Amino acid sequence: MAATRDDTDPARDSDPAGDDAQPTVLLDLDELRSRPTVVLPRQRRPGRKRAPLLLAAAVAVGWATLVSALPPLLAGWFAGTGFGTGLRLGLAGWLLGHGVPVRTAVGPLTLAPLALGALAAWRLERAGLHAVRAIGARRTGAIGRTLAVAGALGLVYGLVGGLAALVVGGDGEVAVTAWRAVLTLTVFGAVAGGVGAARASGAAARLHRALPVPVRLAARFGTVAALTLLALGAAAAGLALALAWDDASKVLGAYRTGVGGQLGLTLLCAAYLPNVAVWAAAYLLGPGFALGTETSVTVAEVHVGALPAVPLFAGLPDGDLAGLGLFVAAAPVLAGGFGGWLLARAAPRGGDGPDWSRLLGAAALSGPVAGALLGAAAWAGGGALGAGRLAELGPVAWQVALVAAGGGLVGAVLVAAAHGLLRGRRR
């Protein structure tokens, strides 16, 4: 029972609470826990205002364009040809990076610098993410809204490409076709931006879950095998350029264009480094590549004519490297085997061992996936530098795809099966 203070207590006069003081009550915590409670509704924060789709697409595409167009514009400015000419050259190079043919006095230029294309695709992928976030569709899994964002990004990017084509012009020493620029950049923007939009909205994860398990595994590890071959090509090209660095420096120094001109040429060579990596991968696979009409650069033979003075060409092999024949034959098998080993580790297992139908099915599909990706890279990395002898540059896409698919399939199936058998014996 609670205790109260007596009225005769002399401390009453000094109590600051006076007559209003309440007696102290001791509460039983167990009794308090047993009392019923009422759940109050959670107070929701006021929602953010959503931006209109076209406005979000315009802002995102504008920033992506600024970032991706800056390197070629700098290269045109370093060329020292004046503001107007440098602007036209820079925008022409930017359009060429998307695969838009450029007409010149020496013939059409269709050899797209893959570094510029990769930069533009990356920025558009980020633009898709930002646009989805701006319209409030993030993590909704809404396929319709994802397609709407992709279409809006493609539409705006196509308009930007048309404006760039108008600045470059349809006549003169450097020219592009406006409708070709609009069409190419519309498709480019819709695809690259759509990838980012699908990832941000959750539509990509939703579609991924809907695919059969073997298809998901094949897509994942076939991509790993293709990237492994491209990495080997990049390493081989880098080693060749490092060994021929003195010759490349002499070629660069032969251009009497001053520091700005040499810097612009360096940026131009850097833009084509991914192309060189693709060509080197085709060289390691066996089909090789061409450096002009009726030319061939393979492990078995090197047949080229007169080449322009470009520092990147200093790393070309001087002759055949027949000693690498065994490695060339094994390269796609090794890359496919690496992907198959990773696939076998990630594949679902049953109680009695691996699920052989899923494991071998995914391994068999991973080879064609790798071949398709490398064939696409070979197709994108080739083209023409004029109408003369350099009208054919790069590997033959279908040959690269066929060799990579066959070797990757054999390597993936063998290694995945061996891995599954070994793990089964250990059990």
Automatic annotation (TrEMBL):
Chain residue ranges for the region called Disordered: 1-25
TM spans (from-to): 53-80, 100-122, 143-166, 178-200, 221-245, 265-285, 297-316, 322-344, 356-380, 400-422
Keyword field: Membrane, Transmembrane, Transmembrane helix
Compositional bias per record (Basic and acidic residues), positions renumbered to this chain: 1-15
Protein's UniProt keywords contain Transmembrane: yes
Keyword Phosphoprotein attributed: no
InterPro entries in alphabetical order: DUF6350 (IPR045931)
Name of the featured protein: Uncharacterized protein
Species in which this protein is naturally found: Pilimelia anulata
